[in-house]
Amino acid sequence: MIVRIMGEGQYQIDDGDVEALNALDSALTAAIDSGDETAFQTALSALLDKVRAAGTALPDDTLEPSDAVLPGADAALSDVVAMLGDEGLVPG
Amino acid sequence: MSLMKRMAMIFKAKANKAVDRMEDPRETLDYSYQRQLELLQKVRRGVADVATSRKRLELQINQLEQQADKLESQGRQALAAGREDLAREALTRRSGVHQQLADLQGQYTNLQAEEEKLTTASQRLQAKIEAFRTKKETIKATYTAAEAQTKINEAFSGVSEEMSDVGLAVQRAEDKTLQMQARAGAIDELISSGVLDDASGTAKDDIAAELDRMSSSSEVELELARMKKELTGGAAPKEIGSAEDGAQAGLGEAQPAEREETR
Predict the structure, then answer these.
(1) What is the 3-class SS of B60-129, one letter each residue?
(2) Least confident of B79-93, B223-237, B249-263
(3) Contacts (Cβ under 8 Å, ≥6 apart) of B188
(4) Cβ-based interface (< 8 Å): residues of A facing B
(5) Which helix (H) or strand (E) holds B142?
(6) Contact criterion met (CB < 8 Å) for A63 and B6
(7) DSSP label at B263?
C-alpha cells in the first residue's frame, strides 16, 4: 500500500505493516472525533513515525496515486477538520 | 471510515473531477501538463517570497542587535558620568530590544524551515512533472482510445495528488509570508520612528540627548573657563576706557587694584 504524508512525499508500506497502521489510524480518528488537540498530536506523530519507519520512500518521479493520505507533522486538528469538511481546501 | 482513507478519497475526487471535464483523453494530458508547469512556477515564486522575507528579518535582527549594543554603551557612559538613573533607563530599553530580538529569531527559524520545505516540494514536483511529460508523450504516440483513458487516469491521478499537496503547502507558505511581511513592516516603522531608535543616530533618543546635554554642558564650562582666562590676560586692559556698563565697570574696578599691586 502507498501512503502519502502531506508535504513529505510517498511511502511504500508492506502488507505486513498495514495492520499496525490501521490501529494507529483508528486512534487518530478517535482523537479527531473527540476534538482533543493533545490526543490528536500524539496519535498523529505516532502514526507518522510508524509510516516513516516501516515504509520505503518512493522516488520523486513515481506517478502512483496513494491509497492513503496523512496530514503533515505540523498540521493542527482544526486544519484536518477543515480539510475533511470542505473539499475546497485542497486546491485542484 | 479511517482518516487515511478519507483524505485519500478527497484527493482522488479532485483528480477525477478534473479528468471528467475533458472530452478527449489527450486533451487531459496537455491541460494537466500546463497546470503542472503553472504550479511549479507558483512554488518557485513562493520559495523566492519566503527567502525575501527571511532576508528582511535578518536585516532587522542586525539592526536590533546594533541598537542593543548602543544602549549598553550608553548605559556604561551614563554610569561613568555618575547618572545611575539614566543608565537604568538605557538597560531597561535594552531588555525590551532583547525581547523583540528573541521573537524575531523564533520567526526567522520558522521561515527557514518553511523555505526548506518548499524547496524540496518544488524538487519533488519537478521530478513528477518530468515523469508525467515522458509518459504523456508515450501515451500519445501509442494512442488507442480503448487503453488511453486508463493509462491517462493513472498518470494523471499520480501527479494530481502531488499538485494538491504542493498547492496546499504553497498556500500555507504564502499566508505565513504575508503575516511576516506585515510584522516586518511594523518593525521597520518602529525603527524609523525612533521608538526603538536607530543605530545611525539620526533620530536621537532621549538618553542620547541627555548624555549630549551633559557632555555639552561640561564643554560650556570649559569654554567659559577658557574665556575667563583670556579676559584676565593681555586683552582686558584695552577695554577699560570704553566700558560704560556695570559688568565692564566691575572689571575696571578689579584691574586698577591689580595694577596698584604690581606697582
Answers:
(1) HHHHHHHHHHHHHHHHHHHHHCCCHHHHHHHHHHHHHHHHHHHHHHHHHHHHHHHHHHHHHHHHHHHHHH
(2) B249-263
(3) B60
(4) 3-4, 6-7, 9, 21-22, 25-26, 28-29, 32, 59-71, 80, 83-84, 87, 89-92
(5) none
(6) no
(7) -
- Report whether B37 contacts B126 (CB < 8 A): no
* β-strand pairing of A68-70 with A2-5: parallel
Residue B167 exposed, middle or buried by CB count within 10 Å (0-12, 13-18, 19+): buried
A84 vs B6, B131, B168: nearest CB: B6
Which residues, including other chains, have CB under 8 Å from residue B197's CB and lie 6 or more apart? B67, B70, B191, B203, B204, B205, B208
**Buried (b) or exposed (e) across B40-54, using 16+ Cβ within 10 A?**
bebbbebbebbbebb
Amino acid at B77: Q
> A58 is written with which cell numbers?
518512493
Q: Which residue of chain B has the CA closest to A29? A: B3
B214 is written with which cell numbers?
Answer: 551633559
A45: left (phi over 0), alpha (psi -120 to 50) or beta: alpha
What residues contact B171, with CB distance under 8 A and at least 6 apart?
Answer: A91
Whole-complex ipTM: 0.82
In a mutational test of the A interface, the residue from B1, B2, B3, B10 whose CB has the highest number of chain A CBs within 10 Å is B3
* pLDDT per residue as tens digits for the range A36-69: 999 999 999 999 999 999 999 999 988 888 999 9
* Residue of B5, B7, B42, B160 best to disrupt the A interface, most CBs of A under 10 A: B7
* Among the partner residues B3, B11, B157, nearest to A28 by beta-carbon distance: B3
Residues A89/B165, Cβ–Cβ less than 8 Å: no
Q: Do A25 and B157 touch (CB under 8 A)?
A: no
Q: Which amino acid is at B174?
A: E
